[in-house]
């Protein structure tokens, strides 16, 4: 009988596992004190894991001069969450809950998501570790306190600003075209005065906003490129007659809400003669009267949902809107100029709307079968591209070498071969190189997964949608559709995420 030797399986020792650690830092203003805090956080986390045998620092994610009340503008925080979803990180360290978020909802949402991915967070100031499930109640309480603190600070700042506005002591924070800020007051920028005067002169002479913009761009094309909306803003701005209307916009008392136009919800303060005027009051008032009369003219066209979205398959020109017997049509620009130049046919607006609603509802009803396989393929392709990229491999190799150098000089410092000054100089030089390489790595990664992010955004939209589309929704159309190519009786919809789907009109 043969001799059988049983070879026991090797069981991985969890204690030997090296955790991939990320650090998140944030300061909410660009003041000197806050920047010192920001640099201190970076330095602290750069050295924290140098001697650790169980944790390895993957990256430091740092937002500078950014509010924590909403995560939308925190690009580094969003990059951190994205890298966590991609499986690059096992554990996150942050100074405190208020650094992580000042919005309880966002704090809990992200904490729970990371925990579902097997990623823990250590809030060092509060000594809360999400590895302990009982800490979630503490996170809720501390997050609420952080939110209240942010709200209180915001309200105090608003009160201070409004008091200055009411007393006339408020200083402008930015300058419109034609002015510059000097010692907290508006002073005329001579190189731009002639352009501002020409804008008002051209408009009050009978030229519309679009015509005025074209005139300025033709005349001053070498120095300025002005848009339709910029001309309209200049024509409406009281700053050009030396006055100031304060609190045109305000921030509602809701965490995470940005500035909104003040349509009578808050007091506004009109102060005359706050600075030197460029335009006379007579010309300014004439321009305001003309703008009220000319709500819609051939020079100030209405922008419809399908404007610049419909493209002719035969000649590549855009379609424009026409009305005939109270019915709206869209026709190719070239065909409308001369039918001999393009043989495309006009299409009713009703047909376009009907085709979009049908297509939308088909996607909504079948998005899991249609979109998720595409998402999976894009994820696999992105991972392969990142893994196989010679540039990325080279950058990562260099990063490893630099981190090894940090360990070497740390060892030399401990043994007394390097003095403190020399040690700091070399650390700073190496950390600067690491930061530069990490930036290059982020740029490469971002350029490669744009389509994937669009697809993820598309899936997220349909997951949150609660019902089919019954009536045309212009905002939904604008969000989803990049363009429509018109091919006789077929409309090709180019959807975000590089998705092309056809529908009969």
Radius of gyration: 30 Å
As laid out across the biggest beta sheet, the strand order is 2-1-3-4-5
Q: What's the pLDDT, averaged over the residues?
A: 78
| Biggest sheet details | 5 strands, mixed
Number of domains: 3
Report the portion of residues in β strands.
15-25%
Annotation field: number of helices? 16
C-alpha geometry: extended
Structural class: alpha/beta
Per DSSP E runs of 2 or more residues, the count of β-strands stands at 18
* Portion of residues within helices: 40-55%
Low-confidence stretches: 10-15, 296-300
Which quaternary structure do these chains form? single chain
Cα separation of the termini: 79 Å
Detailed description of the structure:
- Helix content is 49%, strand content 16%.
- It has 505 residues and is α/β, with parallel strands linked by helices.
- The strands form six sheets. A five-stranded mixed β-sheet has the order 2-1-3-4-5, with helices on both faces. A four-stranded mixed β-sheet has the order 12-16-17-18.
- β16 and β17 form a beta hairpin.
- Residues 10-15 and 296-300 have low confidence and may be disordered.
What topology emerges from the helices and strands here?
Blueprint: E1 19-27, H1 32-48, E2 55-64, H2 75-85, E3 91-94, H3 97-100, H4 104-116, E4 120-123, E5 128-129, H5 135-167, E6 179-182, E7 185-188, H6 190-204, H7 209-219, H8 228-236, E8 244-246, E9 249-250, E10 260-261, E11 269-271, H9 281-293, E12 310-312, E13 319-324, E14 327-332, H10 333-337, E15 347-348, H11 349-370, H12 372-388, H13 390-414, H14 420-448, H15 450-464, H16 474-480, E16 481-487, E17 490-495, E18 499-504
Parallel strand pairs: 1-2, 1-3, 3-4, 12-16
Antiparallel strand pairs: 4-5, 6-7, 8-11, 9-10, 13-14, 14-15, 16-17, 17-18
Helix pairs in contact: 4-5, 6-7, 6-9, 7-8, 12-15, 13-14
């Amino acid at each position: 009988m043969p001799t059988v030797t049983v070879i026991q399986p090797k069981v991985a020792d969890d204690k030997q596992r090296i955790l991939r650690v990320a650090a998140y830092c944030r300061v909410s203003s660009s003041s000197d004190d806050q920047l010192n805090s920001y640099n201190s956080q970076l330095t602290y986390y750069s050295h924290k894991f140098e001697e650790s045998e169980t944790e390895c620092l993957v990256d430091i994610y740092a937002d500078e001069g950014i509010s924590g009340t909403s995560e939308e503008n925190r690009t580094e925080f969003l990059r951190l969450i994205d890298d966590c979803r991609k499986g690059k990180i096992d554990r996150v360290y942050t100074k405190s809950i208020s650094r992580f978020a000042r919005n309880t909802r966002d704090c809990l949402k992200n904490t729970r998501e990371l925990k579902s991915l097997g990623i823990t967070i250590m809030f060092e100031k509060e000594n809360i570790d999400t590895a302990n499930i009982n800490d979630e109640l503490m996170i809720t309480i501390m997050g609420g306190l952080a939110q209240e603190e942010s709200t209180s600070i915001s309200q105090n700042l608003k009160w201070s600003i409004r008091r200055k506005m009411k007393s006339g002591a408020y200083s402008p924070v930015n300058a419109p075209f034609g002015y510059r800020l000097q010692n907290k007051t508006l002073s005329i920028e001579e190189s731009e005065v002639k352009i501002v005067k020409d804008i008002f002169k051209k408009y009050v002479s009978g030229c519309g906003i679009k015509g005025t913009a074209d005139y300025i761009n033709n005349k001053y094309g070498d120095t300025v490129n002005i848009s339709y909306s910029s001309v309209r803003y200049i024509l409406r701005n009281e700053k050009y007659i030396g006055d100031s209307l304060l609190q045109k916009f305000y921030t509602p008392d809701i965490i995470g809400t940005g500035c909104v136009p003040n349509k009578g919800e808050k007091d506004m303060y009109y102060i005359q003669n706050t600075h030197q005027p460029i335009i006379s009051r007579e010309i300014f008032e004439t321009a305001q009267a003309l703008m009220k009369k000319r709500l819609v003219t051939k020079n100030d066209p209405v922008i419809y949902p399908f404007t610049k979205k419909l493209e002719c398959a035969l000649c590549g020109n855009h379609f424009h809107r026409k009305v005939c017997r109270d019915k709206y049509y869209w026709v190719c620009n070239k065909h409308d100029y001369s039918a001999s130049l393009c043989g495309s046919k006009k299409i009713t607006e009703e047909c376009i709307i009907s085709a979009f609603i049908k297509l939308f509802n088909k996607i909504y009803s079948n998005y899991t079968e249609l979109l998720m396989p595409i998402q999976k393929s894009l994820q696999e392709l992105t991972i392969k591209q990142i893994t196989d990229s010679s540039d990325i491999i080279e950058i990562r190799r260099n990063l490893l070498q630099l981190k090894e150098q940090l360990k070497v000089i740390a060892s030399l410092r401990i043994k007394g071969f390097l003095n403190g000054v020399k040690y700091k100089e070399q650390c700073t030089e190496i950390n600067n190189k690491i930061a530069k390489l990490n930036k290059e790595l982020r740029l490469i990664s971002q350029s490669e997964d744009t389509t994937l992010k669009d697809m993820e955004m598309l899936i997220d939209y349909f997951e949150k949608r609660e019902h089919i589309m019954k009536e045309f929704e212009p905002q939904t159309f604008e969000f989803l559709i990049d363009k429509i190519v018109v091919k006789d009786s077929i409309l090709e919809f180019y959807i975000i995420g590089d998705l092309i789907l056809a529908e009969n009109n």
